[in-house]
Amino acid sequence: MQAPAAAERNKGPILAVLREYAGPGALQVLEVGAGAGLHAAYFARALPRTRWQPSDIDPRALRSITAYAEAMRVPNMLPPILLDVSQGWETWGGTQPATLDLLVSINMMHIAELRCTEGLFKGAGVLLKPGGVLFTYG
């Protein structure tokens, strides 16, 4: 498992903000660019009523995400999917229009190409439910 120091430092403050959007009911969440998976596992465990779908473009990250889910025993975290956010939402692991409550992207936009950020916003416009939230950090 990879363990980025920045992810360790910011997981608590980010969770505090995510809790504001979590509410009491079940939520469908897609995390784009989940990286090592520390955030995905931490947030899914802390928000047990979510169905957390992590994703990344890097196969090494997918392995790390799987390891975090197994090590932390997070039952509401789905197996990670390979996702290239610069491609159309139709390729995003079968996610259907207007089905997501939260679309989460942490530390992607400042390191990815502009077409990735554009893809994220286009996908959010289609995949989020009315009132759904695109949550970005970094």
Automatic annotation (TrEMBL):
Family annotation (InterPro entries): DUF938 (IPR010342), SAM-dependent_MTases_sf (IPR029063)
Provide the protein name.
Answer: Methyltransferase-like 26
The root-end lineage is:
Eukaryota, Metazoa, Chordata, Craniata, Vertebrata
- Report the family membership: Belongs to the UPF0585 family.
- State the organism of origin: Uria aalge (Common mure)
* Source superkingdom: Eukaryota
Tell me the Pfam families matching this sequence.
Answer: DUF938
